[in-house]
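User:
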Amino acid sequence: MRNLFTTRVKVILVIAALLTAGLAILSGVTNVTVPDLIVQGVLAPFRAAGTALTSAAEKYYGYMFRYEALAAQNEVLEERIAQMEDVARQADSVSRENERLRAALGLKETHESYVLVDAYIIGWSSTDWENTLTINRGTSAGIQENMCAITANGEVVGLVTAAGPNWAEVTTVLDSTLEISGTISTSGYNGMVRGGYVDGHETLLQMNYLPSSAIIRNQDQVVTSGSTVYPRGLIMGYVVDAGFEETGVAKFALLDPAAEISSLEQVFIITQYTTDVVTSSDTETQSTEATVPATQTTPVETTAATLPQGNVG
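Assistant: Predicted structure:
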């Protein structure tokens, strides 16, 4: 009987007694039965785990809610930015248009005889030997073949070579098939200007048939000599280099085109202009003015030098 209760059993019994006494005291204090206290003690860890899971779920939900709110806000901001960028583009377009219109107004004030039709560029075509652009105005607006195209600043763009009711094709000064008689405005030397065939300088123009004694300076301005197609004084380009032709009996000059063909948005077609013509009679020769449609052949004031005839004058 002495060994009926071992030390371990005694310890367990003591602990159980203490727990029972403690639960009884706690039950009396809290007015909760002992079984309830036992259940609560057993469930406490699970409740703690559930509380932790609930808290984590609430945090995740809050994060998702904030994420959705931020995503919606970001979408609204992106839409506003797109609207602001569109407004800025429109403002830039309007600003450029105003600048072109002011320049065109100045052009008309300087050349009151010009009848101009404005057009926007809707297409480009460029190869080693060809350089053309397509505009959105045509015969219904009075545009015909062999009419000169210029910028709002009076710079030569090229020549209308084809036209339909609502479109026209302009062969630019960079095209190798286009030749224009030109004059170096500071010295009066005359020559023929052509583009598209200068090796290594495809974006430059070349002015040929200049006198071998001609003094040519960088940045000399070259303008149209005047013909039935090109009014006198339109700007073609500026001298950037010069040299002797292969024959050695004439000089040539390389020109930087005045019109920036690749960045143009709008051109103006000269459908009619006034030029000085020469009339003669049995008794006298007098200078008068005549209104010349751009496609009509009318004698123009001659120059002192005899020039080789170009394709279009």
